[in-house]
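Ticket #4471: structure export looks truncated?
Reporter: QA, pipeline team
Priority: medium

Steps to reproduce: submit the single chain below to the structure queue and open the exported record.
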Amino acid sequence: MEKIILNISGMHCASCAGNIENALKKVSGVLSAQVNFVAEKAYIEFDAEKLKVKDLIAAIDHAGYKALMPELSPDKEEERRNKEVRSLKIKFIIAIALSSILMSVSMGPCVGIMMHNIIMDNMAFIQFLLATAVLACGYQFFTRGFLAIVESRSANMDTLVALGVGSAYLYSLVVSIAIWLGNKSLGMDNLYYEVAVFLISFIMLGKYLEARTKRKTSHAIKKLMSLRPKSAIAIREGVEREIPVEELVVGEIIVVKPGQRIPVDGKIIEGYSSVDESAVSGESIPVEKNINDTVIGGTINKSGSFKFKATKVGKETTLAQIIKLIEEAQGSKAPVQELADKIAAIFVPTVLIIAFSSLFIWLLLGKSFIFALTAFIAVLIIACPCSLGLATPTAVMVGTGIAAENGIIIKNAASLQMAKEVKAIIFDKTGTLTRGRPTLTHTVSYSNNEAEILRLSASLEKKSEHPLADAIVSFSRLKGISLVEVSDFESIPGKGLKARFENNEILFGNRKLMSDYAVDISIAGRDLDKLEAEGRTVMMLAKERRLMGLVAARDELKEFSKEAVQKLKSMGKIVIMLTGDNKRTAQAIAKESGIDKVLAEVLPQDKVGEIKKMQGEGLKVAFVGDGINDAPALTQADLGIAIGTGTDVAIESAGIILIKDDLRDVVTALDLSRFAMKKIKQNLFWAFFYNSIGIPIAAGLLYPFTGYLLSPIISGAAMAFSSVSVVGNSLLMRRYKRNTGTVPVRAKT
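Actual output as written to the record:
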């Protein structure tokens, strides 16, 4: 399976996106296809053994649209979009200028403007030429509109425009031909060219304004893409050489000077500095970097100079992966969009039925053909489903972009929506609420040999990946205690370690492990109670089933854990701590962080069961974790939130990734989701409201009561305004401000 993102040009509405999706899904070997109308991109998964990228491009071209490979350079991507906007602007200016001339010619005599006899004698021909020139500016509405029917057997926004404008133009052309053939009964009043030209002009104005505002929705992507420097200073053959970033390879030694952007990811091998990582992580305070510390491509070196070895280049860098995740998120569809998609699928055919019905009903009621045609065209034009198709994806794009600027990666639109619905937040303890870097605080021996307790404990932990391992091993080495080799090593998840030394069975673990092997720990009862009540994690050492001693370590809370918990509780969330640690230690940490409910002594394999229990009670659950053993829980939860400093497995399993090690970002993610969903609902409401009110008025509902029939020109202007207003409402989300104080977060509306 292979994934690819293609740029699409020529889309005018959500129906266009649907047509492209359907065309792609019909191609054998395409596993999935999603088209984002706002981003103008297609996100495709396909079998590379059955298909080539050129086959996908051909399928899109055959459907009447243009597919292009994505630009790697942000400048080229920007240039492509700017070119499209300039083209629309030029076409609109030409169209509105010619339309104004046509209106002046046709309406001049009515307002007392004298016209030359040549103009008066050839009025129909002059209007025909001007109208034809205007329609030529918008020829794509006609080609795409009818191509959608021929190729996809479905109608889209272009089809409605083509029918509406085309009807006015063709009717006027028939009248013009009759006049040219000498039919004196038909006058200039029967020409409808001005309606056709102003409709096209207003629709083109709407598309121009829409294209301008849509560019702003991808602000975050463009900002991130611009972070990548074009060149780097690499040491080749012992000499510093400036080379294009694209030529860098893994293992290359790169020099970074003060004020320069770091070109790719790597590890410092010489020098030190402070690095501004705000563009990637959202953290405003520069991070101190020394030898063996990692650096991220796209961040800014502040003060010192250093050399580093490249570890990730090209598409593998952190920045490239973040951009990819955001693009995929912006291309995904939120569940709430399913309703809009279902309506859009039947919307255009329904509008066509209403338009033709209004035409025939007014004719049957004895109204003139011009009257009935006016209602027909007005319905077709005002009902364009653009606002409906823009409602959700624009808000998703802006919302995920804002999140990225704050160091939060929301991997898909479903996660963005789910974050609002979450009621219970479950935190893992070690490495999530706490720093995950415990320090050894106590060693207790019941055999009068404290050094032996440390020696054996550290010798077992040397082979372990438990968070306590580094603390015990480091402390033993600091004390100058030499470690020994053990045999038959076995890690028992959630309990501890087992091995053999000098033909003796050694156990090192928690109460559960001691209980499983019938080790009497009564002698340590008072020490255990005291240390665990202080929030320390205690591990016991037994030799041949006899307790020898214990070690205790303390893992401090992260800086903002307590503040994050308080904010979540103020938002009405149920906050829970889920840990494999013993109850006393867990309750001490929970009390310190402000968490009321604790699930302790839960084995890794049982965490999923605890989450299922809560889901069975009707709760939408988010799980926040960072370790390998958190992956099943992250997957089971309705929303998995991974700490970006955690393991790759945890990050892969989550729907939201926090790049910074700051739990306040959990609050920001939930609040931003609430804000985005509010905007989506506003957009959908106005899109539905606009069409439900506009279509009946355009069909002539008010005429029997007020004598008012909606002009097709006003319909065109209203349609253009509806699309721009929806995009504009989504762009207002960029006013969102993250609250870093101690009061609950509230987003501006």
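Status: closed, not a bug. The export was complete when the record was re-opened. Leaving a note from the reviewer for reference: The chain has a mean pLDDT of 83.
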